[in-house]
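MODEL INPUT / OUTPUT PAIR
PAIR INDEX: 1
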Amino acid sequence: MTITALNQQFAIGDKLQFIQNDNGTIFARVTTAHAQADIALQGAHVMTFTPAGAQPVIWLSPAAKLTPGKSLRGGVPICWPWFGAHATDSSFPGHGFARTVPWVVEETAELADGSIRIVFALPQSSIPPAQWPHACRAKNIVTVGRALSLELATENTGDAPFEIGEALHTYFAVGDVERIRVAGLDGAEYFDKVDDWKRKTQAGDVVIAGEVDRLYVNTESTCVIEDPVSGRRIRISKSNSRSTVVWNPGAEKAAKMGDFGSDDGHLRMVCVESGNAGENVVNVAPGESHSLFVTYESL
């Protein structure tokens, strides 16, 4: 659909407009009394979210480039229909294909409280059959209000069950990652990728000192990022999610990645990802649906 057609069918006055950048990629821009947000049609990828009168909640690298077929550093990438490496074929993209393929706008609405809701759908033409030979529908329903809410929905439209791994790989903006604390995971078990995937138990809040890459399992808890440098807290509420990932690459790995924007770019972000991965992958029966819900609030 062209940018003109998108705006004719789905724009909501000045509150929701569709914009095209110089290389032809399209994103939705939400501007209301509550917040501002940009969401790319590629990957149905929330790039930014800033509540009115507040600091950005979502971190987007200043070096990020919205390029067709390429993942974007920052925002809320969608990991689907698997998380991490593919279980049987290492040539398939890590974290699945959903974050780098085109989605379509299915519906937009202004809600009674002034929030803007956009329903993105993953068209069949964006699903590589060799990687995902299952009949299904996937949607990302984004609601931009005083808080940012997402629903990642998967429906099995075929006649055989399938298994999905998923996560909203959200990058949160922080003042200094080495001074934050992530509360809500005390006592949870996790797999420590930095330490050869050893299974461990979290004691107290999560703190970041160097590279951290942990898959917490069997936890449905709300997490809160305590950020004394920015003088705020970010609450991450979720449902139908039994996994949480906490990730920061640390200085050495971030330098090798090359798209963090500066030598200290990794200090400005932390990923706290809500999903279902590892032993928490989800089986979806024929005719059934599964939805992962998250809400991000600046406190």
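PAIR INDEX: 2
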Amino acid sequence: MIQKFTVNDFEGPLDLLLHLIRSSKMDIYNINVESITKQYIDFINESKDMSIDLLSEYLVMASELLHLKSKLLLGKTDEPEDEEYEINSTEDLQEKLLEYESMKEVANKFKDLEDKRSVFFTKLPSDLSEYMSDKPLSSDVSIDDLTNALKVFLEREELNKPLNTKITKRELSVTERSKEIRETLKKLKKCEFTSLFEDTSKPYVIITFLSILEMSKNKELTITQDKIYGSIYLEMK
């Protein structure tokens, strides 16, 4: 037996009414109150196992519908509103249904946004505090020198970037990228700092930069600069 009436994660009397109206292909501005009231009460009668708390919510709406139905049948629509009831006219019923439908649509949009957001993973900012030091990383090159060199390089690459580009996803860890840098330096012996940034996508740049810092921290690299603001070179120790 039915215990709860659920439509798109919403439950309750207004949800049921809206469903009945849509299923009957009625215009919400031209509701057949007699027909909807019968369908609504039939639903309650068929829901024998509904909990008392839930049933009470539906019975309150049933009394509202029966009150409205009796007013329409007796032609007492011009009488003052009965304060005991929230629905005293078809306009009241329409207003409640339209308001509920509007809230439901907004809630569904938020649900869609939540579902879309759940497929994205946000990486927390990397903690670079362990690399911060007044001492140079190697020789006379500091982390600020590397950062400035990388900034200039990326700005230049952005200007040279073609209008139509194909983006490929390349996932690396610091360990994997460090291994690649070691292999490159073993072949070239010495290379210019920015030449290691073959890909200028944000994840790749961050991983490469962190790998260089990690290798420098472990005293694997010799980092030199030929002159102030000049090119920075890396080589294995």
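PAIR 2 NOTE: The CA atoms of residues 215 and 221 lie 6 Å apart.
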